[in-house]
């Protein structure tokens, strides 16, 4: 099988931009898939070797479909993480005369992009119907295919290079410091350059009959001076009030500290599953 990397398509999504921004040190083909779940399933079925999916946005928080699928449906290690600056743009079909914002009847995009541009839509497009679609690029493609309609899409400026579109309004996201974290997953290692920041992600299941178990989990890291950058609960889907805890650790897997912490956590009856130990990369805004 050729080295293929799946991303949320069609062409022109932020996921494609993230995929092409990864410092991959070998030839690779980029393959679009219609949904996050299909990206992950393609890797799990060995249709492609790797996949990249969004996992968290600095404005809207966790991409639940990504996290839940990684927890419940597939067993794919995280190989790398990339933080990508996100700039949302209002895109319209190229036409002879410019389309006033007040004339736009429909605006479409991925739910995350719409949420990130909520205040702009409310202030400048109150008359427009808001429609959620699977990706920002699908929204751009749809708008480009209906040039006679007063429709607009929200997405990356890259779409204006791919489809017959123009930017009606740039930088419409509500907050300037808008980043999305993407994770690269795969069933075998990938050559990547060293990074000055490494992470390990684990999934912890608490025992049902151990009061204070979460405190004990955090204490196992605290006294070892291991920094945690994120902890999030997700339903186990077994019973109301039953949760997993996803924990991001600010260091790579080692031979002493992390194994010792995991053993201490398991000693109180918790289950620990490693989701990956990997380099973290950040692309600066404007680069």
Automatic annotation (TrEMBL):
Pathway: Amino-acid biosynthesis; L-phenylalanine biosynthesis; phenylpyruvate from prephenate: step 1/1
Coiled-coil region list: none
Keyword Lyase: yes
Source species, domain of life: Bacteria
Keywords annotated in UniProt: Amino-acid biosynthesis, Aromatic amino acid biosynthesis, Lyase, Phenylalanine biosynthesis
CDD domains: ACT_CM-PDT, PBP2_Sa-PDT_like
Keyword Zinc: no
Pfam families registered for this protein in UniProt: ACT, PDT
EC id: 4.2.1.51
Reaction equations catalysed: prephenate + H(+) = 3-phenylpyruvate + CO2 + H2O
Domain ACT span(s) in chain numbering: 202-279
Domain Prephenate dehydratase: 4-187
Protein name: Prephenate dehydratase
Top enzyme class: lyase
